[in-house]
Amino acid sequence: MPQLTWQKSSFSGGGNGECVELAAATAGHIRLRESDEPHAIATTTPHTLAGLLGALKAGRIARP
C-alpha cells in the first residue's frame, strides 16, 4: 500500500482517541480510520461519504 497522508477531521475531539482521519487513495477512493485503531481502515468513494455525512447532518442516522 502506498504511503498515505492522513488528515484529521476538523470535527474530531481532543487527543483522547476520538479523531476521525481521512486520506486520499488511488482511483478516486477515500480511506477512513479512527485514531485509536489506525490499522483498521475503511475505503469509500467521495459520493458515498458525502451521502453518509448528509444523512448524519439531517438526522436520518442516529449518532451513537
Write a compact overview of the structure shown:
This protein is an alpha+beta fold and 64 residues long. The protein has 1 helix and 4 strands.
Description:
The protein is of the alpha+beta class and 64 residues long. The protein has one domain. Helices cover 20% and strands 31% of the residues. It contains one helix and four strands. It has one helix at 46-58, and strands at residues 7-8, 20-24, 30-34, 37-44. Strands 1-2-3-4 form a four-stranded antiparallel sheet. Strand 3 (30-34) and strand 4 (37-44) form a beta hairpin. The radius of gyration is 12 Å and the shape is flat. The chain starts with 6 loop residues before the first strand and ends in a 6-residue tail after the last helix. The relative contact order is 0.16.
Produce the secondary structure layout.
Layout: E1 7-8, E2 20-24, E3 30-34, E4 37-44, H1 46-58
Antiparallel strand pairs: 1-2, 2-3, 3-4
Protein name: DUF397 domain-containing protein
Organism: Streptomyces lutosisoli
InterPro entries: DUF397
Total of helices: 1
Helices and strands: which structural class? alpha+beta
Helix content: 10-25%
- The H/E string reads EEEEH
Strand portion, in percent? 25-35%
Q: How many whole angstroms does the radius of gyration measure?
A: 12 Å
In one word, what is the shape? flat
Largest sheet: 4 strands, antiparallel
Tell me, rounded to a whole number, the average pLDDT: 86
User: Low-confidence stretches at least 5 residues in length (pLDDT < 50)?
Assistant: none
Tell me the domain tally.
1
* Quaternary state of the chains: single chain
How many β strands by DSSP?
4
Distance between the termini: 31 Å
In the sheet with the most strands, the strands line up as 1-2-3-4
Protein name: DUF397 domain-containing protein
InterPro entries: DUF397 (IPR007278)
Domain DUF397: 4-57
Pfam family, one: DUF397
